[in-house]
Every structure is written in structure tokens, then in C-alpha cells.
Amino acid sequence: MTTLSAIVLAGGKSSRMGEDKALIIIQGKPLLEKVGNVAKNFTDTIYIVTSWPERYQNLDLNGCEFIQENPSNTQGPLVGFAQGLEKIQTEWVLLLACDLPNLRVEVLQDWVKRLHNVEAENIACLVKNTKGWEPLCGFYRSSCLPLLLDFINQGGRSFQKWLKLYPVANLPLLEPDMLLNCNTPDDLQQFLVN
To answer: Is the N or C terminus of the chain more exposed, i.e. has fewer CB atoms within 10 Å?
Structure first.
């Protein structure tokens, strides 16, 4: 069995949504809780990186550990990921954004099985689309932390620019809607209709 931890990023300001995306109810559960429950299928070690852990204290996130981001200094998901990665002690970490309502456990299970065959030089295992990598739903080797910190210390904040620097293994995705995220009120309407 692949040793695995999980990091869920819930530190964004949700400015396009106008309310905290992590707390939006879809299919009867707050988004952060839904994503946390998916992660629990793969590991007991789940870190939630957020500026506002107190907002999420009443959610059913048993077993998850909060990592406090500085709310006045949120520098994007790459920096939040680095903060979480500093805690990881397993070979692989599953990174998830908190706004992915269509996650499918069976797809992630298939991806986990593929990790055994990922060549050692690959720092991550992600889906690629026409715009680049899908960085907020995939797997990273914990050993990539020094490379990530070096990039951040040089002013880098873009997952895409960082991932272009190193080998990344490609994951198959037959159902692209699994990676749709809920960023705006219009996005939310789509998920509430379905």
C-alpha cells in the first residue's frame, strides 16, 4: 500500500464567490467536509491549511489537523501547500482544493494504484489539460519540498511555472467534470441544478 497523507487547501478569500466556498452546502454537506470525507478514504493523516480554522470547528472533520495560515499574508495556494508539506512524513501527499464537489473516490483509488509505477524523478502525478496541469487535485512526493521552497523564496507563486521546471507524471481522467471547482455563484448554480 502506498503511504499517503492529504492536504486540503481552504485558505482562499473566495472573493469571486462572495462567501466562504468551504462552507457552501452541496448535497447536504459543506464543501470542506465533503472534500475531507473523500480524503479519509485514503489516509488518517489529513491537514487543512486555512487562515480561519475557527470557522470550521463545527464541521465534521474528525481526525483532520488544521494548519494556520497568516490571514494578513495569504500568498496563494502554492505557499499554503508548502506550509502543509512541511508536516508530511509519508512518501506521497494527496493535495485537494476545498472547492471540488465532484470528487470521485473510485477515480482517486485508481490513481493511488498508479503511484507504485511512477518513476522516481517525477515530483508529482497530475492530470494535464489544454491549459496545463491540474495542480489542486493530485499527488506530490513529499521530497519535492526543498524544490518548492526554493521556487517560493525566489518569488514564485504559480503552480504552473513551478511544475514546468520538473518531471511530472500524467494521470488519466475520463470524466473531466470531476475537477470542476466552485468559484463563482454561476458555478454554484450548476452544482445545485445537477
So the answer is: N
8: left (phi over 0), alpha (psi -120 to 50) or beta: beta
pLDDT, one tens digit per residue, over 92-122 is 999 999 989 999 999 999 999 999 999 999 9
Burial of residue 178 (number of CB atoms within 10 Å: 0-12, 13-18, 19+) = middle
78 contacts 162 by C-beta, under 8 angstroms = yes
Amino acid of residue 140: Y
Cell triple for 118: 511512477
In this prediction, residue 19 carries a pLDDT of 63
Q: Quick check: helix, strand or coil at residue 88? A: coil
Using 50, 70 and 90 to split pLDDT, how confident is the model at 35?
very high
Distance CA 75, CA 69 (A): 9
**pTM (two decimals):** 0.91
CB-facing half-sphere around the CA of 46: CA atoms within 13 A: 23
**Rounded Cα gap, residues 7 and 97, in angstroms:** 8
- In three-state secondary structure terms, 192 is helix
* C-alpha cell of residue 8: 486540503
Decide: 22 and 10 in contact? Cβ < 8 Å: yes
For cell 491537514, what's the residue? 47
